[in-house]
């Protein structure tokens, strides 16, 4: 008996015949697909006509009739399918094409480094595989040998594989977008220097910053944005007082007693940070009190920013992890030496001899680096209160 629209909608898992070889195949997952069964050169074959979600019963019958007519006229769908497969590039070819196309907008250093991990770790394993055959299981297998041995590189490659597969989908080489969300579930938990400090991929941070800026303004959200913009530790933000800032010179001087390394740290302030601070200044309750406080006297809780992340659906991400995010971004997307990024994070040199001879704090380079970081994150500083905020003199009065 021929199918009806209602039968198609309510069909249970199995094969439901419409007539003349056309049938609806319903999988246990609920997926519904139109299939046409025909004889071709003595062999019975099934040809997919699309998802029942996208192709109506009427359209499926029309498509089946058209395919039967074309086969009678000599069309060979098997040969056409093989021909189509031949133009699907390998994973390596797709990666190199992606690199060549997207890399025009990258800095020279990032452009030259981007392929090295693929060439060293991935091409020998999956480079010759057609790109449309690269799925989560394939990626797990390729990354397994390096996942624990060089975790940071492995995470970086996972992110770049996603870029390649998205590019391949746009080019029409991969019919559907490939989600790599399940890859980490197939790999052991990493235990690198980040430990439990889970970091958000830098590609996701601009959208978070925009969300924080456009949501209802709170002290906690301001503190979170300030912390991410400056790549500082949460305590350095929570306990910041107005007397540490010189907004005319755009610097924040954190005294040695508040720093983990026990050394004074001077932070260059980017334009969005200055805008945020001017907003806070207009709302202050004390000229010398805490910057991120509801009363100028008591700092916000050390859980305030963590709770913000949890409430936004990032339970596994930590505030401290954004420092690692900044490190990854600086290495991947800029040409600044590692020493400059380390100094921006106030990392202490492990080599005491080198530390003794290094006299520079890379301040001007750090100012440029933090400007690039702010530009990357997007100038999401809220305009609220900034226009009417009174000018801040060099150092707020103690």
From TrEMBL:
PROSITE patterns: TYR_RECOMBINASE. InterPro entries: DNA_brk_join_enz, Integrase-like_cat_sf, Integrase_catalytic, Integrase_DNA-bd_sf, Integrase_DNA_bind_dom, Integrase_recombinase_N, Phage_int_M, Phage_Integrase. The keyword rRNA-binding does not apply. GO terms for molecular function: DNA binding. Residues 195-370 form the Tyr recombinase domain. GO terms for biological process: DNA integration; DNA recombination. Keywords: DNA integration, DNA recombination, DNA-binding. Belongs to the 'phage' integrase family. PANTHER family: PROPHAGE INTEGRASE (PTHR30629), PROPHAGE INTEGRASE INTS-RELATED (PTHR30629:SF2). This is Recombinase. It comes from Rhizorhabdus dicambivorans.
